[in-house]
Amino acid sequence: DAGVIQSPRHEVTEMGQEVTLRCKPISGHNSLFWYRQTMMRGLELLIYFNNNVPIDDSGMPEDRFSAKMPNASFSTLKIQPSEPRDSAVYFCASSRTGANYGYTFGSGTRLTVV
Amino acid sequence: AQSVAQPEDQVNVAEGNPLTVKCTYSVSGNPYLFWYVQYPNRGLQFLLKYITGDNLVKGSYGFEAEFNKSQTSFHLKKPSALVSDSALYFCAVRDGQAGTALIFGKGTTLSVSS
Fold first, then answer.
1. CA A33 to CA B70: how far, in whole Å?
2. Minimal Cα–Cα distance from A97 to chain B, Å?
3. A93: number of Cβ within 10 Å
């Protein structure tokens, strides 16, 4: 099993540009989560999906952020336009549906907006 | 609402000594509790979880955690620390209701000196 795969590993972009982060969950996992990690705020839940349907997006910072899950094997997190304060490590995680299951995390995308 | 607190930003111990990383939680229903570890430039890795049953839970790499319902705590412990245990540790909680996402604490940096 290849685990949760995120791309790219690193992204450097200029303020105002569109950024798209990608995630491939583990096959058979029905839940997918996007988290953001910063020194100041720790690990924040942005949005999560069950069976490709967004369940809770209350953690999405503002309208510049959007996430999609067009099928069970792919999700994107898009920031448009990007700002320097969006600089962080973005993690994708997946799990089987059910409260007793833990999450498997990807290696993260380190985003730097200059 | 659910929340988790890790009161110590950093814990320092000498190799061979026991270690404790503290975690307290707040949740409306039954708490499902997790510990994760993060090494530099890596994603989070699952250590152990408490769902129900024995209050003492054993996990990976010799770690264990004790669930204390009256004190709403789930402290991570290890009898004898290794230098290789140095990392960032996260406690996480979710309500027993299926479909809710894990909420993570801010993390505690464990530093084990030789």
1. 31
2. 7
3. 27
User: Do the chains contact at B99 and A55, CB–CB below 8 Å?
Assistant: yes
Tokens read off for B85? 């245990």
pLDDT digits (tens, 9 = 90+) for B13-39: 999 999 999 999 998 888 999 999 999
Supply B103's token pair: 């909420």
Largest pairwise CA distance in chain A: 41
Contact check, Cβ <8 Å, B99/A50: yes
Cβ distance B43 to A98 less than 8 Å, yes or no, reads no
Q: For residues A10-36, give the mean pLDDT.
A: 96
Query: What's the CA dihedral at A5, A60, B33, B85 to 10 degrees?
Result: 50
B25 Cβ under 8 Å from any chain A Cβ = no
* DSSP-based three-state secondary structure for A15: coil
Residue B16's Cβ-side half-sphere holds a number of Cα atoms within 13 Å equal to 1
Closest chain B residue by Cα to residue A94: B101
- Mutation choice for A interface testing from B27, B60, B94, B102 by most A CBs within 10 A: B102
List pLDDT tens digits, range A90-102. Answer: 999 999 977 778 8
Rounded to 5°, the CA angle B80-B66-B62 comes to 30
Cα gap B1→A28, rounded to integer Å:
29
